[in-house]
Amino acid sequence: MQKDLHTIVRVFPDFEEKIEFLFLSDENFRDLCSDYMLCAKSVQDIKEDLMRYKEQMKEYEGVKKNLELEILRMIVKSQ
Questions:
Q1: CA end-to-end span of the chain
Q2: pLDDT per residue over 32-65, tens digit each?
Q3: pLDDT, mean of residues 12-29
Q4: For residue 1, what pLDDT is reported?
Q5: 12 and 19 in contact (C-beta within 8 Å)?
Q6: What CA–CA distance (Å, rounded) separates 56 from 75?
Q7: Which residues contact 79 (CB under 8 A, 6 or more apart)?
Q8: CA pair distance 33, 28, nearest whole angstrom
Q9: Whole-model pTM?
């Protein structure tokens, strides 16, 4: 709960007092903040996955290039 509150305050720092008041007094506001946190977490997870896939892609591109060179070497050698 406190983590949600701090995250929302970081997004809207000029409204800290109002956010705290709404968070403590309004269930709909808390639900909205909770939805925001779930969305933000999903965005972060996707970004992390993309970074991992980007690294894997670089590795596979290197392997692919090496295999292409080896195939070409064998084609040329067999002539």
A1: 71
A2: 999 999 999 999 999 999 999 999 999 999 999 9
A3: 96
A4: 67
A5: yes
A6: 28
A7: none
A8: 9
A9: 0.70
